[in-house]
Amino acid sequence: MPFGTLKGFGVTLKHIFRQPITQQYPEYKRPVYPRFRGRHRLNRHENGLEKCVGCSLCAAACPSDCIRVVAAENTAEHRVSAGERYARIYEINLSRCIFCGYCELACPFDAITLGNEFELSEYSRDDLIYTKDMLLAEPIKRVPVQDSDLYDTPIPAYKSSS
Amino acid sequence: MSDLVKLTIDDREVEVAKGTGLVETAAAAGIEIPVFCYEPRLGPAVGACRMCLVEVEGMPKLQAGCTLTAQDGMVVHTASTSARAAEGQKGTLEFILVNHPLDCPVCDKGGECPLQDLTFRYGPGSTRMTFPKLTFDKPIPVSPLIALDRERCILCYRCTRFSSDVAEDEQLIARNRGAYSMIATFGDEPYRAPFSGNVIELCPVGALTSTQYRFEARPWEIQDVPTVCGLCPAGCNIRATTREGLVKRVQSRNHPEVDGGWLCDKGRFTFPHLRSDDRVREPLVRGTVGLEPVSWDAALDRAEELLRGAQGKIVTALSGSETTEIAYGLGVLLRRGLGAHSAVLDESTSAALDACRAPLSTIGAAELVVVVGDDEVVDRAPIVDLWLRKARRAGAEIVTIGARGSVPAPVGGAAEALRDLAAADSELGGRLRASDRAILVWSGSGGGGGARLAEAAHALGFEGKPGCAVFHLPARANARGVAEAWAAAADADEADPEPIGLLVVSGDEAAGDPSVRALAERASTVIAITMFHSLAVGWADLVLPATASLEREGTAMNLEGRVQRLRRAVTPPVPDELAWLSKLAERFGVALSPHAAVVFEELSGRIYGGLLLEQLGEHAGLPARRPYEAPEPTPLAHSPEANVPEDHFVGTLRLLRYTPLFSGHQVERVPELQFQRPEREVALSTVDADRRGIATGDLVSLRSNGTSVELRARVDARLVEGVARLADEHAAHLHADVEVVKA
Amino acid sequence: MSSAPEIVFAGTDGGALTELAAYEAVGGLTALRRAREMTPAQIVAELEASQLRGRGGAFFPTGRKWSFLPKPEQNPRPHYLVVNADESEPGTFKDREIMLRVPFRFLEGCLVAARAIESTRVFVYIRGEYLREFEVLVSALEQLRARNLLGDVTIVLHRGAGAYICGEETALLESLEGERGQPRTKPPFPAIAGLYASPTAVNNVESITTVTPIIEMGGAEYAKLGVEDSTGTRVFSLSGNVVRPGNYELPHGYPLRDLIYEVGGGIADGRTLKAVIPGGSSTPILTASEAEKVTLDFDSLSQAGTAIGSAAVIVLDDRCCMVQLGVRVSQFYEHESCGKCTPCRVGTRWLTQILKKIEAGHGTHADLDLLLDVGDHVNGTCLCPLGDSDAIAVASYVAKFREEFLQHIEDGGCPFHGTSSLDGIVAPTDVHEAHAGGAEIHRPLEVVG
Fold first, then answer.
1. What is the CATH number of the domain that holds A78?
2. How far is the alpha carbon of B351 from chain A, nearest alpha carbon, in Å?
3. Smallest CA–CA separation between B7 and chain C, in Å?
4. What is the complex's ipTM, to 2 decimals?
């Protein structure tokens, strides 16, 4: 028997005694990296006002044209955001989103950030259009995240300068 | 061009006509001199913003490029070749930004802002200003239409210059001085003037913004549709900004011959009527409990039934606001299909005017302008008023003959006055005859749709002089196009059907016309094509929804005789007129395309000499003058002659009704425009007021034949004796003679 | 005191000639009579021979300015003479004394000048605060009118409304026309298209008043006074820390040192001289040692890097803080900026803010550089000289007293605190705070640091 064949068997044999590396999703959820780009979140100021002023720069930056913003004016009685205007409608069509994060880059107020959630499947396409309320709310499902200290994630230049 | 000068800009040789501004000269050489305050349409440059600093050889200091004109042998260095100029410009931009808030994401101008663009190109990356910026209350409502943000203002004075030097309303001013200078209106009164909206477009930053467009859209989310305003016969070129299928704003689309880049507030701010609550969105049929919505199939069945039932005894009331194609479509259906040739149109326009036609901009260059008629020009065709003001500023003499004229004339005496002008012994007529730059304008009703005007111009020898022109200001936007299209649809003469079996009312203007309503009394059945419920209720058997000019594809002819193209800015909520007209035409065995372009092609072969739609282009040209033909009596003989003189009762005044600019079904449906509508007041001459002991502000009662109206009096020194002048909408059912007493 | 001949104030003997009879007694009205026998061209020639140069500050030859006006046959529009009596430059108070003491000599000059430019309309734009001067002129005019001496000339006295910028000739014309007092772009110059777009000569009160003696004595005779390029006498407004401040008429070329120590009686309170502003607040400052050397004429002061300006000599003693001086001067220009052009409107305010920050001791070396850089961007880019004046003046303080500015920065405060001779002098911006717009402006508290 040629030596090569034996060597092959040897490799196979060695693996029989190893722990399998297959992870049993969804029973087991592998932690994502801290800078993993998942579903978007809209953020609020500490005083509860929305950071988003409805400027549509995210929509302008979006390469897949999946963001729709319709703005309206804050009034003394109905103040939603800190600026003069706020986003009356803020929708992201997640069926079209490519999670590039350009919206986050474009946002002058850090109002939109990409979270870590990636479990976004729905039975209907319509349900993939996330409205402002959904984006503002804390996500229901928790995604385990790797300890950020384990990974070298330098603060990007555009954020460190501001 | 004999007067050419040669100069050098940034080492490039340029040759331009003498007197050309340096900014334009540089542009001709492909060099940009950035500007904020410079706007040649506002008159001489002021050199306020200092953005245009250039170095001119032989001059010790940097010069404001915008204030210079091209001189022979001049050597100019802009910021791209002169370090000094670049430094000066950098400094200026830094100064402009010192107090300018960084709220571009919130600002409506963001994305289409000259300051943003120039900062991006020439500006500093960061600020050296460490002190707090000046802050003001904001936004200040300068009027219900315009919001002012004084923090963003860079004090270029474009808006105040427009107010004082172009529209001459003198309402916007600069208050305080130095760093605390601010734009304001006198006494913080609302900016109430027919052209106020232009300051929004002029503002190079987001200091003056439209309240209607406030936070509605951002520049990358919109489509601009080039079309033509359909609210008056001037036909100003406009750009309708649309987002998500809705018109969000209307801006001027500078046609230098028609509007010079200005637009009146009616044209600019009236578009929200498209989304009016009482808009007819489906066909309505009179049932047992009033008008009931029906399907289009049922509506067309009903229409066919009514049309057949009338057995040709049909009268059509046209509005004059239809596109030429819709009018032609109606003509094809009713005249060709049903042999119903009878139509009424409030005012038509005489084709004889073509012998002396010229662009409206000709007025701006005139030396003598005579305006005849009892209506104010601004009420009929506002943009013409701006051309008149431009002419006056350039030194032209403006003579007005009418009830409020510089030469007083009795009400309805315009035709008489024109005859006098054309007579050999008239002093003014003699000057008109002698001048190479004289203009005649007819601003009022009657006069055979400009026929009298054309006769006078012919008698004064205007045809041979290109600088001389006549303009008739019809009441309806496309009066002439509609009349011609209707006439072109068939050859037969009209006959007055009696009794009227069916009255077809086309459009809102006709539906709101009391004389059409009177006609409806005599008709057995009525089909009304209207946009609004309230106009249809109570008299129509079938209501078919109409569309607005912003929703229409087609053409319209303006008062100059210029055929201009309308583009559909937004899809109407109902099928357009041509769509169902072609379906109906099919039922009566006549062919009519549902596409405006095809209809135009057919129509053009008949009346425009085969003009192609493509030839109209972005900015339609004006056809050449045609040989003069003595005007015939107007084809639409029904046109009601306004204010037919009657016997005068002692002590009564002639009622002079006028239609104010800010009136009509569209304006009524725009809340922001209500402040522009006329006061409830009646104007009386000084003599008549004194005789009755009436002063301005007094409450007076106007009575005639058992009806009476109470309103405030205003003593109008310009008004002729024996006249009470008030807006149509306040005149109610008053008769031609009214008694005026203090209430 | 000097024994120099008095030209402008001749015959006053220290008093005022407000009665026509008294004025005639000292030889008044002879110039008018003589001028009416001369042709306009002859009057202009006489002025050119005198080499009289404008006393308002720009020092432009008056005769030449008049010769720029088109002849009536070249431009049929009416010609106007506008007299600039809107004297508002800090330190300058000569015109008011001229109007108070020799109103007839001034008005006679107006009539002669009107004849020279073939004008029958004279407008005197008088500073609004000058009420007494206005009344004196009204009385003098009435006396002239009663004697029918005005001929076909109408003299209009127009009172300003409190704006320094209206002393700039085109802003003055705008104001006179009833518009907002803001400068126009030049060209066209007023000589071609001035008041109501008509040919207009705009002259200072002192220039016009000097016209009278020039016609009386002859231009060549007048030119013998003073020095070359700066002929004749000048009314110097001496102010600041001197024993005897006031207006002194002296020939050009008079030593500045003598003006301070002889005429002015030296520095008050036994202090020493620190600096001199030789021609009104807009001219660059001279240090004490420079001031020792110069004479008061165009050439000498130009060589010293400054200008004779409006001949307002402001004397500063050793207690004066140069940063405070900068704040005061800059505040004045900030307050008086008309707001038309950007660099002046924004730059003057910014300069004041930086100076205040340095004065408060919060400044840094970068602030000093910024101050000079902002000044550079203001200087030479404005529509009119107002902004330039601020920048030039402040730059001169830094250039000549840099050590003092650095001391403020390094010590974190003003070394003159509590002792400065400028203490207690309230700046116009503070006085007029309420005028700036009342409730509509939210002035942020000037947080410095």
1. 3.30.70.3270
2. 49
3. 19
4. 0.91
